[in-house]
């Protein structure tokens, strides 16, 4: 899109300014119409379906999504350029997103300046506020497969994000002390590959995202949003969705009502790490630590 040849413009019989206007208007319509259809937050049953897929495909139970951020290149804005100049030394806006087990985006936010860290962008976003206020209809904690252990449903992320009751991150790689911690990090990293893969597919399919978008900030956000919607549309169209839930009733552990206790996330991570080394072990995991 950035380097449109004269021959291309002759074929479609429009001038450069008209071409850019068409792109901007089209992407705005796509993003506005398709986002509520193809990138919408799941209800309780939807979270359970995502969890089932993560367990079957990535052997990480009670996982409801993988979280990460990506810097999307833009041209230097006319005003406030320093806000968008990131640590990689180019201008960008931050795309923050969560993927399911099939590399589809279940939530995203785009537009914060590239000078802000992924952790700060997520901390200040409306999604995190809803997560903190229990407004996302996440299911109650349940038993882990083939185990008496209980765990809440969690998102998974890399080290830069905070450790929360519903957000797990790896143990500090510089301070790994036990095999249990190394195995947990491997299992989490393996499942978190979905969001990295989702970003990779997105930018491979729509290669304009690999270059600086030559539009104003609002249009750039619409372009990125439109690409995400089409990404989900294509993946959904190419596979048969399966929705099945366990109807069994389970009791809820005390951890559900302990949001303000900062030791709770640490205990949840420890519990998952113990599970991965015992009831939830997979034959190959020790080969990757």
From TrEMBL:
Q: Does the keyword Cytoplasm apply?
A: no
Keywords per UniProt: Hydrolase, Metal-binding, Nuclease, Nucleus
List, in alphabetical order, the Gene Ontology terms for molecular function in this entry.
Answer: hydrolase activity; metal ion binding; nuclease activity
Q: Which cofactor does it need?
A: a divalent metal cation
User: What subcellular compartments does it reside in?
Assistant: Nucleus
- Chief place where the protein resides: nucleus
Q: Where is the DDE Tnp4 domain?
A: 67-232
Q: Does the keyword Protein biosynthesis apply?
A: no
Q: Which GO CC annotations does the UniProt entry carry?
A: nucleus
InterPro entries recorded: HARBI1-like, HARBI1_dom
Q: Which Pfam families match?
A: DDE_Tnp_4
Family according to the record = Belongs to the HARBI1 family.
Which PANTHER family does the record associate with it? NUCLEASE HARBI1-LIKE PROTEIN, PTHR22930
Protein name as annotated: DDE Tnp4 domain-containing protein
